[in-house]
Amino acid sequence: MGLRSIYGNYRLTRWQRRLETSPLAFPQVLLDTTAILVCLPSGLRELTLVKEFLPELKSSFRSAAVALLAPPGVRINDIYPRKGYQILSPSADQTTWAGLPSKSYLQTLHDHKFDLVIDLTLGHSPFTRGVLLGHPQAVRVGKGNHLGRPYYNLEIKTKFLRDERNIYRTLVETLTSMKAIAARAAAASLN
Q1: Shortest CA distance to 105 belongs to which of 120, 95, 116, 115?
Q2: CA 64 to chain centre
Q3: What does the angle CA 133 – CA 136 – CA 140 come to, to the nearest 5 degrees?
Q4: Domains: count for the chain
């Protein structure tokens, strides 16, 4: 463990202590989603796997704008076309020495007013952890038994341990099902 990672973990611990969240009503909170941030993994194999599940996410949340957040140093413009997705790639000056997002970059992300942040990084990423802590009022979704609280306020557990394709499929299908259940409940309450 190097000095950068020690300092990064120290900063993340301080952010965790200052994190103030509000209670969310699941699954009704998914009905009001207007902007989604998808934190992408850094590996080429995982990036191509995630690409096949993005259309299902986009069709489930039709009225929401979907933005893709690439990890620092990863170029995804060749893999992901800009059709229907905004690609947010941090530059070198938008990350700190320890690999965390800078305050100016977090402010840029806050200006988009994301309601839903989906973490698809299955490995260790201090940058993504900083982004998750930077959105305390959003629904922060991730794989169960990965980071947990306070990073996620919705953990989706899956029976798949190392099969990334099925992990991503489980995450997207669970979100889609939760939104459909909330929509049916809202329609039933109107009748």
Answers
A1: 95
A2: 14
A3: 80
A4: 1
